Amino acid sequence: MAKATSKKAAKKTAKKVLSGWFPAPRQASTLNDVKTAVLLVSLTLNLVVFIAWLILRITTVYDQQVYNFLFVR
Predict the structure, then answer these.
(1) Are 38 and 27 in contact, with CB atoms under 8 Å apart?
(2) CA distance 36 to 30
(3) Which of 4, 21, 35, 59 would suit a FRET pair with 28, their CA atoms being 20 to 30 Å apart?
(4) Contact, 55 vs 68, CB < 8 A?
C-alpha cells in the first residue's frame, strides 16, 4: 500500500530543498555595517602608511623630497 503525501508535506519538502540552493536573505545590521566601515578605513590608512614607509626604505636618492611630500604640510 503506497503512502499518500499531503500537499502541505510536499510544499514543506520542496521549500527545504530550495532553501539549500539559495542563501537566506541578509538582515540589515547597523552594527555590522559600522564594523565593516571601521575595518576598511583602518586597513586603508595602514596601507598608506606602509606604502609611504616602503617608499622611504627603497629610495635613496629622493629621501628628503619623498618625506616632505608625504609627511610635511
Answers:
(1) no
(2) 10
(3) 21
(4) no
Give me the residue label for grid cell 609611504.
52
Alpha helix positions (H), 1-73 = 7-21, 30-58, 63-71
DSSP state of 73: -
Note the residue count of the chain: 73
Q: 38: which 3 cell numbers?
A: 571601521
Q: Which three cell numbers stand for residue 58?
A: 627603497
Q: How far apart are CA 64 and CA 23, in angstroms?
A: 54
Q: Model pTM?
A: 0.49
